[in-house]
Design brief:
The protein is mostly beta strands and 364 residues long. It is built from 1 helix and 26 strands. It is flat, with a radius of gyration of 28 Å.
């Protein structure tokens, strides 16, 4: 019996090696791409106050993509940003194919640009191999905008908000002559790559709390000082992480506001929520099976095992559960799942996930 097992094991190992060799040898071998080292050139857009930079570079016929990395120094740290441009075959290209206009530059600031050309090719292995070449760094300074008269805010810090879940508080030093401050944020998973900062709000104070964020996620902030039509450059970028979910029990149930979407990520299979439903509707975005239990204000179970998931390949005959938002979310009319529903009453929702908790939820 032992001999049989030993022989079978050796046979499997030998067979695996032979099959792998055949597979590798059968992969078509592509010629290695020929890439030219990009030659980057910069100039300012002629429109006043000339804060946009035009980047041009020499192309490569075998290129798949070009990456532009921009860096600048602010408050002792290097700020980086990247842009991706899909390559076009030289036979189809125009001058604009190898030109990019950076409209995100600021007044009187020196920027450094590096262009990288990249291509993927099959060298006979199972996975494509990247090949790239970088240009030499080139620098340019934007013109000074006469409206930029204030110093930019310094010492920006981001921390979890006190006594508020799914929220971050941003603080900074005051700026002389500033009447208010504008707060901008970005929630990109890679904040340096094609990021888009959105205005979160404004305040006359030197602190700002942003609510309804996703727990455990990182957010990035920049602050601008304002005085009428005059303003400052953006502050250096600062980031913070939203605290973990604490609503793992009924005693710590998260209070949901009607019509406000909240996002939760947790290693726990269940999370608790508290709400005062008006319409009795619950909307949830998720990609795996989850169920709902509804309790009243005293904790008595009103309904349990209620499904909050519809597979894209299945149909449901449950009239209280429908797909919405292009089939990315489900909405349940939970007032029909319990008897004597009263709008405005306090209800507890205990949501159990088949995997880990990872969804956005909204009640009305």
């Amino acid at each position: 019996m032992k001999r049989t097992k030993s022989f079978f094991t050796r046979f499997l190992i030998f067979g695996t090696i032979v099959c792998s060799a055949i597979l590798f040898s059968s992969c078509p071998r592509e010629p290695e791409p020929v890439l030219n080292k990009p030659n980057g050139k910069l100039k300012l857009l002629e429109e006043s106050p000339q804060n946009s930079v035009i980047i041009t570079w020499t192309p490569s016929d075998d290129a798949d993509s070009y990456y532009i990395e921009r860096t600048m120094e602010r408050e002792g740290q290097t700020e980086s940003r990247q842009f991706e441009i899909k390559a076009v075959p030289l036979s189809e290209a125009t001058a604009s194919s190898y030109t990019y206009i950076d409209n995100t530059c600021e007044s009187g600031t020196e920027y450094t640009y590096v262009v990288t050309v990249e291509a993927y090719w099959n060298d006979g292995g199972l996975y494509p191999v990247p090949k790239s070449l970088k240009s030499d760094a080139v620098k340019i300074t934007t013109s000074v905008d006469p409206k930029v008269t204030l110093a930019y805010p310094k010492n920006v810090k981001v921390e979890p908000a006190a006594n508020k879940a799914n929220a971050l508080t941003v603080t900074w030093d005051s700026v002389s002559d500033a009447l208010e401050y504008e707060i901008y944020y970005c929630s990109s998973w890679y904040s340096n790559f094609n990021e888009e900062y959105k205005k979160a709000g404004s305040t006359s104070q030197t602190t700002f709390t942003m609510e309804h964020l996703g727990n455990t996620l990182h957010y990035y902030f920049m602050i601008k000082a304002i005085k009428g039509d005059e303003y400052s450059l953006f502050s250096a970028k600062a980031d913070g992480r939203v605290a973990d979910a604490e609503n793992l029990s009924k005693a710590k149930a998260f209070m949901l506001e009607n019509g406000v979407k909240e996002t939760f990520i947790s290693d726990s299979e269940e999370l608790w929520f508290k709400c005062q439903l008006q319409k009795g509707l619950l909307t949830i975005d998720n990609d795996h099976s989850i169920t709902l239990t509804i309790l009243d204000a005293e904790g008595a179970v009103l309904a349990s095992g209620i499904p909050l998931f519809i597979s894209g390949y299945e149909k449901t005959e449950d009239p209280n559960l429908v797909l919405i938002n292009d089939n990315l979310s489900v909405q349940r009319n939970i007032k029909n799942d319990i008897s004597n529903f009263v709008p405005g009453n306090i209800y507890y929702l205990r949501i159990i996930s088949a995997d880990r908790s990872n969804y956005s939820i909204c009640v009305e």
